[in-house]
Write a structure and sequence with these properties.
With about 120 residues, the protein is mainly α. Helix content is about 100%, strand content about 0%. It has one helix and no strands. It starts with a helix and ends with a helix.
Length: about 120
């Protein structure tokens, strides 16, 4: 009976050890599943970060292009302003020349009128 009791105790101890090993194996399997899921989530995050990085690069490129376009528009506006000022100066010169021609035309009319008066007097 003592031997059966001792063997029974050893069997109980072995069952306890096997149960402990099974419990530890279960925990390891859960950890492996948590780690696998975490790895998938990290991969998803890396993909999201790459997508954001790509978008930021595209935004940066577009901002550079817009800045270049703004500079070109600014240059064109400056050129239009310069041309407008030149045109205004030409208009002033044309107005002055027209006034001068108008005065000369009046002077010529006066001179021609004198010739007519003298020609009519002589006749």
């Amino acid at each position: 009976m003592t031997q059966i009791n001792a063997a029974s105790k050893r069997i109980g101890d072995l069952v306890g050890v096997i149960d402990g090993i099974a419990f530890q194996t279960h925990i390891l399997a859960l950890n492996a599943a948590l780690v696998a899921q975490a790895g998938q989530q990290v991969q998803a995050l890396v993909g999201g970060v790459r997508g954001i990085s790509t978008l930021l690069s595209e935004i940066s490129l577009a901002a550079g292009q817009q800045s270049s376009g703004d500079a070109q528009v600014g240059g064109a506006v400056n050129e239009l302003d310069r041309m407008t000022q030149q045109n205004a100066a030409l208009v002033e010169q044309t107005a002055a020349a027209s006034e001068s021609l108008k005065q000369r035309a009046h002077d010529l009319v006066d001179v021609v009128a004198r010739f007519r008066v003298e020609a009519e007097s002589a006749a």
